[in-house]
Amino acid sequence: MPASLLQHPFMSQTALSQCNAQAMVKAMLAFELGLAEVQEASGAVPAGVSRSMRESLEAHVFDSEAIAAGIASGGNAAIPFVKQARSALPDDLRRYFHQGATSQDVVDSALMLLLKPRLVALESLLVRCRSAAISLMEAHAGTVMVGRTLMQQALPITFGVKVAHWAVGLEQARRRLAAIELPVQFGGAVGVHSGLEGAGGDNLGLIFMDALAGRLGLDVPILPWHTDRQPVHALGTALDAVAGAAEKLALDVSLLTQTEVGEVAEPSAPGMGESSSMPHKRNPVRCALIRGAARQVHGHTTVLLNAAAQPLERGLGEWHAEWSPLIDSALLLEGALEQAAVLLEGLEVHPEAMRRNLAVTGGGIMAEPVAKLLVPTQGPDVAKRISAEAAETARLQGIAYADAINCHPEVRGRLEAETVARATNPALYLGSSKDQVQRARNWLLDG
């Protein structure tokens, strides 16, 4: 697969450089050395073993290509990795390496270690998005634009409240992701720490597991989770929630950047958004990258969801199917949020286009408040009919909606022009838009 051309452009380049094969090997090694250290601390292995292991293995150059080739026979990266590590150790240390662990312990814990800095990076990007969104909300709390339902003009809102909804969606997803735990995995062959009895006969497995979590900076699970994939399910769906919020932002922005709408534009940059054949175009490429990445995250999430129920004490294919979607989701999401942060920080807002689009129907979007104005004298059914007829007249004749109402035969002379003008002024029919901006701002700042 030409990943550098088809997959990697949607991902964070920083994350890609930090989540390569060598990083996976380093994470597996961190698990094994951490395990040796906690076992030595309890007296399960002789003093000095963990230090000697570390000196030997941290200086060793692992052959990641050979490890990759070994997966075809072993089924996972831990098996060939453990073989390489043992062969690099002096004979007197080999028996203590990987003691009491199984391959799933190594792979699951290594994945958690790889994902830990990615969650830190995602948190930072989401905070950037929140800060930029708050600035936009405050600047445009009173910027009137048309609200659209079913892709059609509906009633007026403010651009500030639109941004507030983007911000709240991203922040809700951020808080959900921030609560995710990355637990260590350590259970041994069938998840019950077989053969790890201490001098007094008590099994030390849970003690090792808890100590290993602390040493690696991972969370302590209740039990080993070899076929209890709730941690992966929770993480995958939390990543997907962020992807959905970012995609909503990109979808709205891309629709508002359409030539005929023109209410916002992506931040300009040399060559950004250019067409291969049409020099005049300024395509919303950042939105495309965000949506392309998000769609892939959604797809990866379905794989994780379908792997949630795993058989007996070790998955057969379900566990194996999780590895790439889990890492790829984080890398894709980080790439999407890098674009989203730049998008929000530099979004060009065009209030004059918003005013122009409010007038496209001649003001016909104000038919609802006009109908309410007519109800006391005309009744609800007739009021609705008159307001609709006037909207159609304004559209067909290209006149202002207020004039169409004033000229309607069933209304002419019955309402003062000033009353009609107020009822047809979009800026006076914004509902709770401004209050929502303030409420959202307070909630966002409390986070």
Automatic annotation (TrEMBL):
Taxonomic superkingdom: Bacteria
InterPro entries named in the record: AdenyloSucc_lyase_C, Fumarase/histidase_N, Fumarate_lyase_fam, Fumarate_lyase_N, L-Aspartase-like
Transmembrane segments: none
Residues in Adenylosuccinate lyase C-terminal domain copies: 362-441
GO function term, MF aspect, one: lyase activity
UniProt keyword terms in alphabetical order: Lyase
Pfam families xref list: Lyase_1
Family that this chain belongs to: Belongs to the class-II fumarase/aspartase family.
Protein name (record): Adenylosuccinate lyase family protein
